[in-house]
Amino acid sequence: MHVTTTGTDAPLVLNADWTLKQADGEISEVPFPVPGDVHSALLAQNLIPDPYWRDTEPALDWVHESEWLAAKIFTFTPETGTRYTLTFQSVDCHAVVMLNGTKVGRCDNQFLRWDFDVTDALRPGENRLELHFLSNSQHAQECADASTIAIPYIAQNNRLAHFNHLRKTQCHAGWDWNIALSPLGIYGDVLLRKSDAFRFDDVIIRQHHHVDGSVELETELHFEAFSVIDLDASLSIAGQSAHLERTVYPGENRFKLTVLVENPRLWWPVGHGDQHLYDLELRLGSECRAGKIGLRSVELDTSEDGVGNRFAFRVNGRDIFMRGANWIPADALPARGTADTVRDFLQSAVDANMNMIRVWGGGQYEADWFYDLCDELGLMVWQDFMFACNLYPAHQRSWLESVRKEARQQIRRLSHHACLALWCGDNELVGALKWFKESEEDRDRYLAIYDRLNHALEEAIEDEAPGVPFWPSSPSVGRLNFGDGWHVDTSGDMHFWDVWHSAKDFEHYRSVRPRFCSEFGFQSFPSMKVIKTFTVPEDRNVSSTVMDIHQRNAGGNARIVETLQRYFRFPDTFEDMVYLSQVSQGLAMKTAIEFWRSNNPRCMGTLYWQLNDTWPVASWSSLEYGGNWKVTHYLAKRFFAPVLVTAQPDASTGEVVLFAVNDTPDTVSLKLDIRALRFDGKLRSLGEEQIACPATGSTEIMRLAPGELAAGEFLHFTWCDPSEQHQGENEYLPNRPKDYQFSQPRLSLDTRDGDLFVSTDRPVLFVTYDHGGSTIYEDNCFTLLPDRPRRLKPVRKRGQSEPGTEASLDFLKG
Question: For 326, how many CA atoms within 13 A lie in the half-sphere containing its CB?
């Protein structure tokens, strides 16, 4: 929530005019924008090369190995007898705080807000504030050396070891998609607050939805009192208000204020209703906190059924199928992850018919404005606590106490956001117990350490009671179940990685029917437009050293190429290889998601890995670095459509089954036109179907008997409802694309009234205009038929095109 204070008690914002210098080195004072990070400040002054260029990364290790001094001089006149608090919203990660040469505090957790009493260190007139950043990588090694129990770490962090000892963004040490820079910085506001009698710390907001539709809004204000005072507080929302006044005593205090909102306008996820937000204002003494709040209830249904246990989100009493992707930090250089950049990425998620984002546990709790954007856009947020793929030193009391404080601060901070759908304990920590020699040989000890951490998080949720469900881990079969969430598809959420990591065929996705698949994915190369930003021409080969450096998953480039050739004829050029890798990725995601959606309501959500990239890299993302759409993202717009018709093979009968999937809250009537096509242009009608599709489910439409599609034919079908609100087209190829004989098409591209129109004389698959371009089109990467010219209508422009780049038309060639 936004903090404001009336009169002369307004906080002094200390974000401007910071400088940075190397603590014991050659770099003297340079500008240090706050919020910001050390690498970005150095890069802005041309003191380091672009970390993303070719093989630059290891040459910059000296940055994270060094200590740095960030300083700011400000003028201030403290009032006599008044107490002052210096607040840092986020410091990454280990730093000593000095004011006028006096140590006033020490930061050691990126995910904590730090409040330091600086009353005695302030002086009238000029004041000098310093942060002495210690080396994150050196401190991680020192923590590991001091630990009485070995705490293994994931192999992707081999360049920067032992970062699991740090409360810091874990992927800053590298991941199987991220560069290893270990940034340091200040990532939020720096405030000097008057806190003479009390310090307003946290607010938690709870919603109680009653059967009559009214909502009881309960707010709990947490503050530290420094003397005996009479203090008043108030709450106002939707024309309702509450007020109290009470004598408080030194120490931690809390006030509760409650109002009843009758006949509220509810907040809904995108596609299910409005995202109505009320103005909310809380006041404690002279300090106000104001923001927007959406009123909604959210539940996680894990009830037992005939299969196992459900995993379904219920919002405002309605079961909603979750369609979306996993979110990682917006950029490996934190200063670049601005609100405008993130808004663009999240808008692209909504544009592709997503309604949920999972904030992954190896990243960071995002800034307030991230969740404000999700509230505004109607994107539900699955929020991991920040633990991923490692073992952690929860046997250490001080480390665990810091985590307990972190959890409570973050739960309270995010409690007013309607978008928040789930708090999840971690990412893949149960699986990590099997990944290391130490934990395999002494599982009981490491399981006990894990349980300390997981239970601390669960206790924080239970104590704070934010009205948001808790899930112990992802993947997980269920509470206190330490089984295999990667392969059990009858209960809990699933991470299904057999297709990528085990090099299985795409059809293997149809071997499981998850209750909710929260991770799965397939890689591709970024577009040529991105590849040109980090390579020279001689690097542009899939097995070049630079292309290998910009691939963080062992054997990833070879797996892209090997799998690609299973489905497509081998391309002639590197450029075609890049394009086809994205088509291959999109085909993988389409295969999985359409099958799992056809299993609704058994399956109630698919979140693919991953939405975005942190730097220019070959990865599982559908938005390449910078935010331009890969082929997969255009396909996602179709396979995530709220109303979808899909054809699926029935392995037991040999039939092809058409399903209509309806994720909307209303019954939808569809008219279908079904045809069999050949790539020489010949077609035959398989008839029309009329069907009523009930809300929130999958309905079988018809079955095609074995042999009903002749050799060389594929299935194509279109659908539309009477209002034309839900319409689309899809196809089903009974064989892999390379098994068909393609005719050479004659494509034409025309411009009329600012739109592009493309047509063909032969059926063509995956027709894509301006691959990797900065213009987002209403449709792209589609099947083009002779009798159906397609319009490429620009929806929005994401920025300026790179100079010297020209748009081209790509398609699947024979």
Answer: 23
Report the distance separating Cα 202 and Cα 410, nearest Å. Answer: 10
Nearest to 18 by CA among 6, 29, 7: 29
Q: Are 690 and 720 in contact (CB under 8 A)?
A: no
* Domains of the chain from N-terminus onward: 2-192 (2.60.120.260), 197-293 (2.60.40.10), 316-639 (3.20.20.80), 642-734 (2.60.40.10), 742-814 (2.60.40.10)
Q: Please give the radius of gyration of the chain, using alpha carbons only, rounded to the nearest integer.
A: 28
Nearest to 729, CA basis, from 643, 602, 618: 643
Of the CA atoms within 13 Å of residue 439, those in its CB half-sphere come to 21
Predicted confidence (pLDDT) at residue 803 exceeds the cutoff of 50: no
Q: Is 252 a catalytic residue?
A: no
From first CA to last CA, the distance across the chain in angstroms is: 56
As a whole number of angstroms, the distance between CA 37 and CA 182 comes to 10
Could you say which of 220, 287, 406, 519 is catalytic?
A: 519
Cβ-contact 672, 719 below 8 angstroms: yes
Answer whether residue 6 shows pLDDT above 70: no
Q: State the DSSP code for 739.
A: G
pLDDT in tens, 113-156: 999 999 999 999 999 999 999 999 999 999 999 999 999 999 98
Assess whether pLDDT exceeds 90 at residue 772. Answer: yes
Q: Is 210 exposed, middle or buried (0-12, 13-18, 19+ CB in 10 A)?
A: exposed
What is the value of pTM for the model shown?
A: 0.97
- Greatest Cα pair distance, the chain, in angstroms, is 91
Tell me the pLDDT tens digit for each residue of 440-450: 999 999 999 99
Mean pLDDT of the chain: 95
The H helix count followed by the E strand count for the chain is: 15, 47
Count Cα neighbours of 151 within 13 Å in the Cβ-side half-sphere: 26
Q: Considering 220, 287, 428, 624, which one is annotated as catalytic?
A: 428
Question: In the annotation, is 462 catalytic?
Answer: no
Three-state SS string over 434-494 comes to CCCHHHHHCHHHHHHHHHHHHHHHHHHHHHHCCCCCEECCECECCCCCCCCCCCCCCCCEE
Looking at the predicted structure, is the pLDDT value of residue 81 above 70? Answer: yes
